[in-house]
Specification:
With 739 residues, this protein is an alpha/beta fold. The protein contains 28 helices and 21 strands.
């Protein structure tokens, strides 16, 4: 491997150190920066102009910030305290301004002397610290600061140029110290080997990598920053897409058994029983899947669709096609409730076609078995036998399917429901149960913008179901501001009663169960800012159910459902609700995925601000599944101007999951989205924004596919190979191997 010695040099070494040992230690522990190359790729978050001041009104609470501002005034106060009982305690209050807003800085005790001398009115400086609120005013307590004088030699060298880079920093290491460390190693940027093929770089007018690194850390103009960012975005997009393209290329070389459905078999019989016609989308996606199943290498397909767009129907037809062709199909569900629900609905949809080997079973029938961790020993033994002999064509289960004991006769297709809840290792273990790699279909009801699909699931082909089946009703969503307008909440409970009086049912969703034991360690932990702000824990299922049954929903049949109940009890509760024997189900997000009760028309989500945008959209999809219109009420105590309320307003304003997923992604950082899927790689996305940079990602995918098609092992591109090795540390390489 052709590594670049200068950039691979550790920042911390036993005898010599590129930086001071203390600085190198903080960088390793708090920022994950281990080598000179890591440090050069730690890019500024933004830039301040020496003559301009930071907009203080926009500072985020409880975050470590760096601001450039001017001292407006400074006052030294003395006070009495336990440590200084004679009124000898000292507190320095400094007010800084950006010309419009103001921010208070506070220093105490012996720490007041230096700032009292240096922070005189009119002085400009960079200040770094954690933003908090005291007496309803923003303040930084004991901030670190660096004066912007520009006269001593060091400052002139470090702050040359009008643009000051502000780096992602920590309380242990301020932005300007990181800046100085980067200045120390910046000369080695000249030795950075360029991963982009020359033809690609020149064809797109991108600057060479050493130049991009110099310009991002020491720009003289805004155009320098733009040049550098354009170039570095391409690096991130291209190297990642090459990794994914190589994965797809390797998959295409694997052998698999082609599975073509018999002409008048199980699938034909099933289609003939359907009381409705499939939507155009379902038919199109089914054709894509059948084409993949008929090939001699494994299908790797992501099926994404709106809540209720009929993904299960498409997956079932794929499973029936494989059974027709003599193989077996396994569906992996994230929870027992969902596995049982899938099993029940699939058996109902298939009717006598699911009764293979039984009296009354149709001629083409197969057996559909359920396998979960909580099954009794006898039932489990029976299910395992049916799988080994091939008697059961379809098995639906939780991760219990992955255990060593589970043997298949001939596993041809694995369907994974709700991709993000399954580890790659689990998917891999199940795929390892086939004589040859089985075909793989991954379903997700969380709509994923196209670029995220290309970035996160780039080794999977994507099919999208965006039509709702005929007869599905629209869902009206409203925000209920419980704190500002308590009468709105009373009206919400009246609406639930009205739905029940009209013969329908309702869900009430809460963030917590409520039977958690009071763990002294947990309660002693520092609370999150939201908890501090709200001064109360999130609402709990058991408390809310009790209050509703005794109060606004008195005389209605109210039951609870949550993840810590015994599986048999959960199943019994779901059966009663599905049968209409329960009016209101108070539950946690255990109902988020796949629970299908067409008669449920209303949902009230308590503390809705505690859930993510995509999760709220998922939950809402549980109502309006029949012919009656659905109603979703998002209850919150957050104030009108808060970001949480804006998020809820967005959910209430549209039923388009793809639009919501964009909003969700814009509000969170990419890292959250790519987190698990990218297996926490050391080099995750830094400058590439998957929503804004859609064009770059799409173009990088095409370029990567072309490069890999002509040179899969990258023999002629050693620099790209080096970049790939840096991106795919061992853990991540395995991750993509298992794909």
């Amino acid at each position: 491997m052709d590594l670049v010695p200068a950039l691979e040099e550790p920042l911390r070494q036993p005898l010599t150190s590129v930086l001071g040992p203390a600085t190198a230690k903080v960088m390793a522990e708090h920022l994950g920066l281990l080598t000179v190359g890591d440090l050069l790729h730690h890019y500024p978050r933004r830039y301040e102009e020496r003559g301009q001041l930071t907009h203080l009104a926009d500072l985020p609470m409880d975050e470590h910030v760096t601001v450039v501002a001017q001292v407006a005034d400074a006052r030294l106060h003395t006070f009495a305290s336990a440590k200084a009982p004679r009124g000898k305690g000292q507190r320095l209050e400094v007010t800084i301004t950006d010309g419009s807003g103001r921010l208070q800085l506070v220093f105490f005790g012996a720490g007041v002397h230096k700032p009292h001398k240096e922070l005189l009115p009119g002085t400009r400086a960079m200040f770094a610290g954690k933003v908090s609120v005291f007496n309803r005013r923003l303040q930084l307590a004991h901030p670190a600061y660096e004066l912007l004088r520009g006269d001593p030699e060091e400052s002139v060298e470090t702050w040359a140029g009008a643009l000051i880079p502000i780096y992602p920093a920590t309380a242990k290491l301020e932005s300007w110290k990181i800046g100085k460390a980067i200045q120390t190693v910046l000369p080695t940027a000249q030795e950075a080997v360029d991963p982009l093929p020359d033809t690609l770089r020149e064809g797109r007018g991108l600057v060479p990598l050493p130049e991009a690194l110099l310009k991002i850390h020491r720009p003289h103009t805004k155009a320098d920053i733009e040049d550098a960012r354009s170039r570095l975005k391409w690096d991130e997009a291209f190297v990642l897409q090459v990794a994914l393209a190589r994965r797809r290329h390797a998959d295409a070389q694997l052998p698999a058994v082609p599975r073509k459905p018999a002409p008048d078999g199980l699938l034909t019989a099933f289609d003939a029983r359907l009381p409705f016609t499939l939507t155009d989308g379902q038919q199109r996606v089914s054709r894509e899947i059948f084409d993949d199943l008929a090939t001699a290498h494994p299908m790797h397909r992501l099926l994404q669709g709106e809540v209720g767009s009929g993904k299960t129907m498409v997956a079932l037809r794929a499973m029936l096609a494989v059974v027709d062709a003599g193989g077996q199909a396994a569906m992996l569900a994230p929870t027992e409730v969902l596995a049982q629900q899938h099993h029940r609905s699939i058996v109902e949809m298939m009717g006598e076609l699911a009764e293979g080997g039984m009296l009354g079973g149709a001629e083409q029938a197969t057996k559909v078995v359920l396998l979960t961790g909580s099954m009794g020993a006898a039932a489990r033994r029976h299910a395992l036998l049916d799988l080994t002999t091939g008697e059961a064509g379809i098995v639906i289960g939780t991760h219990a399917l992955i255990e060593d004991k589970v043997q298949f006769h001939d596993l041809g297709l694995v369907v994974v429901d709700e991709q993000h809840r399954f580890g790659v290792e689990q998917r891999d273990a199940l795929r390892g149960k086939g004589k040859q790699p089985p075909h793989l279909l991954v379903m997700t009801a969380t709509p994923i913008p196209r670029t995220v699909a290309m970035t996160v699931f780039g080794d999977l082909e994507t099919s999208v179901l965006d039509q709702l089946p005929a007869g599905r009703s629209p869902i009206a969503s409203h925000v209920v501001p419980a704190a500002d307008k308590p009468h709105f909440l009373s009206r919400a409970w009246e609406r639930v009663r009205e739905e029940v009086e009209n013969g329908h049912q309702a869900y009430v969703v809460c963030p917590r169960i409520g039977d958690e034991e009071d763990d002294p360690k947990k309660s002693a932990k520092k609370k999150s800012p939201e908890d501090e702000a709200e001064k109360r824990p999130p609402l709990a299922v058991l408390d809310v159910a009790d209050q509703l049954a005794k109060g606004p929903l008195q005389s209605l049949r109210v039951e609870v459902l949550h993840g810590r109940m015994h599986p048999d009890d959960k199943d019994a509760v779901m059966r009663r609700f599905a049968a209409g024997d329960t009016d209101v189900l108070v539950a946690t997000t255990v109902i988020e995925v796949g629970v299908n009760v067409p008669n449920a028309t209303a949902m009230v989500i308590m503390d809705a601000d505690r859930f993510g945008v995509s999760q709220l959209h998922q939950l809402r999809g549980r109502v309006g599944r029949g012919s009656a219109p659905g109603l979703c009420l998002l209850v919150t105590e957050m104030p009108e101007a808060s970001a949480a309320r804006q998020r809820l307003n967005a959910v209430a304003s549209t039923l388009d999951g793809f639009e919501l997923s964009r909003i969700d992604l814009e509000q969170r950082r990419e890292g959250d989205v790519l987190g698990q899927a990218q297996s926490g790689a050391r080099t995750s996305l830094k400058v590439l924004a998957v929503i804004e940079d859609e064009e770059i990602i799409a173009e990088a995918r095409e370029e990567a596919a072309a490069v890999v098609a002509t040179d899969p092992d990258l023999t002629h591109l050693p620099a790209l190979r080096t970049a790939l090795d840096a991106l795919l540390d061992e853990e991540r390489e395995q991750y993509l191997e298992k794909g």
